[in-house]
Design goal:
The chain is an alpha+beta fold. The chain has helices at about 5-10, 150-155, 160-175, 180-185, 190-205, 225-265, 265-285, 295-305, and strands at about 10-15, 20-25, 30-35, 35-40, 45-55, 75-80, 85-90, 95-100, 100-105, 110-120, 120-130, 140-150, 210-220.
């Protein structure tokens, strides 16, 4: 290093402890240099370098991605899918949000981590949750809601994010069910979902979460309560059936009364009705025997009977 003539023919590269150096010979990648001092002849070859500061471990755009397989032992990669958002941490400190893509970092004293958050619509299920109504009936409730994370940075600031949402859902359902009687609860199941949806958004929208829908899947009643309700339902249906039967009987009687009045006022209609019944009788018997004098029409007329006497002769 003290010989000036020799120094003119050497390329001296100093690499600090916090650096990597990418070494290129005649524009082609030759290798990665760690901390130390390196000397290369420059008489017949041209040497160029790219210095990497390990205190900032993310690979810059100056590094050609084609050489990454050659330095795979010195880098690490993280991938953020198209339906995700990533959050970058240096030494457990949140740095920034990452869009979908693949990211490369140098292995260095700086600890690098990438946490991903799913931005798709997700579902939160609560099954078999026991609750008590205002009239002291204990039931089990199956509830479901859909949500989407809008702000991944805020969502990651909450420890056990899904558990906290589950607890919020439990508290809201207990608040609602505890103020209603069983009959009202069964009748107003749809309103439970609207109440919970509104309250969840009020509490969690500031945390970067939006709830899209919510509703009751099932209300499971104790066996004895279920038997009582079935008995009540059966009695109601029987009462409805009896009411319909009485209504039809009344309508039928009213129709017969109207027909009788018309027949009484119109002799021709009365006669037509007699012939109609005679036709029905003839459909159900095999033979008709007529005795005595007179023609066939007179004999058939005698089967109907004299309207004034109400008598006839038929065999």
């Amino acid at each position: 290093m003290q010989n000036d003539l020799l120094l003119q023919e050497l390329e001296i590269i100093e690499v600090q402890d916090y650096e990597y150096v990418l070494h290129y010979v005649d524009g082609k990648f030759a290798g990665l240099l760690k901390s130390g001092r390196y000397a290369f002849w420059n008489v017949f070859q041209q040497h160029t370098t790219i210095r990497i500061d390990l205190r900032h471990p993310e690979l810059s755009l100056d590094v050609e991605r084609a050489i990454l397989p050659k330095i795979a032992a010195y880098i690490q990669s993280f991938e953020v899918m198209s339906h995700e958002s990533g959050v970058l941490f240096y030494n457990n400190e949140m740095l920034r949000e990452l869009k979908p893509g693949k990211y490369y970092f140098w292995k260095s004293p700086v600890s690098v981590a990438v946490k991903t958050v799913d931005l798709r619509q997700q579902q939160l299920d609560m099954t078999g949750q026991e609750m008590m109504t205002e009239d002291k009936v204990t039931l089990r409730l199956n509830f479901v809601c859909q949500y989407r994370i809008l702000n991944p940075l805020k969502a990651l600031e909450i420890k056990s994010f899904e558990e906290q949402m589950y607890v919020q859902l439990q508290l809201l359902l207990r608040e609602y069910v505890g103020t209603m009687k069983l009959d009202d609860l069964l009748r107003m199941k749809q309103e439970i979902g609207m109440f919970v949806l509104t309250r969840l958004n009020e509490k969690l929208i500031e945390e970067g979460v939006q709830f899209l829908s919510a509703g009751v899947k099932d209300i499971i009643l104790p066996g004895e309560i279920k038997d009582i309700l079935n008995t009540v339902l059966l009695a109601e249906k029987r009462a409805q059936a009896n009411l319909i039967t009485r209504r039809e009987e009344t309508a039928s009687t009213r129709s017969l009364l109207n027909t009788a009045k018309l027949m009484d006022e119109n002799q021709t209609l009365y006669r037509l009705k007699e012939l109609e019944f005679l036709e029905k009788i003839c459909e159900k018997i095999g033979t008709i025997s007529l005795t005595g004098g007179g023609n066939l029409l007179e004999k058939l007329n005698s089967l109907v009977g004299d309207k004034t006497t109400g008598k006839g002769d038929a065999r």
